[in-house]
Amino acid sequence: MTKVIKMTESEINTFVKTYKAFETMPTNEYISHFFQGDGFSVSIYKSGKVVFQGSKLDYFKEYVKEDNNESDGNYPYNHMDTIGSDEVGTGDLFGPIVVATCLVKGKDTNELLKLGVKDSKKITDKEIVKIGKTLVKKIKHKVIILRNEQYNNNTSIHNINELKAGLHNSNIRDLAKVCKYDVVCLDDFCGKTNYFKYLNNISSIKPQEIFKDISFETKGETKSIAVAAASIIARCYFLTEMENLEKLYGYKLPKGAGKEADELLKQIKKDGKKDILYHITKLNFKNLKK
What is the pLDDT of residue 72? Predict the structure, then answer.
């Protein structure tokens, strides 16, 4: 069971004094106080929102009344105004990398769930396009498309994780400037320590431009509807970019980097059009070195 309420500073101080025996060190940068006991946990966020979780919330009857119950999402992020960020295209030989970052307000969680927002890997491309087109009209978002030419020019300088970290940082920083939010959640692709190490390796990013208050979540799209929405938006843009490349170069481009990708590479080379690979593929993939 999950309950979320808003507390004043005075109410928080009273709660902390009352339940001090259960307090432990928080691991999330957005949490100011964390309490844990047999069958329950309580997270007090710096924004003033308090998340009660567990099967034994009777300790907190005065706080977890029925009228304080919010959306049905299972994770705390889904009750909060969350900036979520995710990317697609990194495992595809053909096409760009697309990074999308969006804001989902806690009050909108149920509406997005009804719309069908969930992990984009569990949705067909047809559904992604439909849901994605609705999302881009409904919620605030930022998208960066790193097209193949840009990717191929940059991979001689930066590795793929440095490129992704830089794109996420840019998106998150820009969106955070123009909206109010409680927390930022990133689908974790390299770990917190490595993420900031990668950003420090990019000379074009100044230290003061690095956005630091981020929660890193493995399989973030399953834990935050904001990350799930970002993954759908990114996939929607990716599919559009793939269609544009197909029209421009006259080949049906397969997803992924498997057998179909290898077969198309052979056909392109056979057709004497090897020069177009710079514009439609990621040249550092092993497929091109076979």
Answer: 41
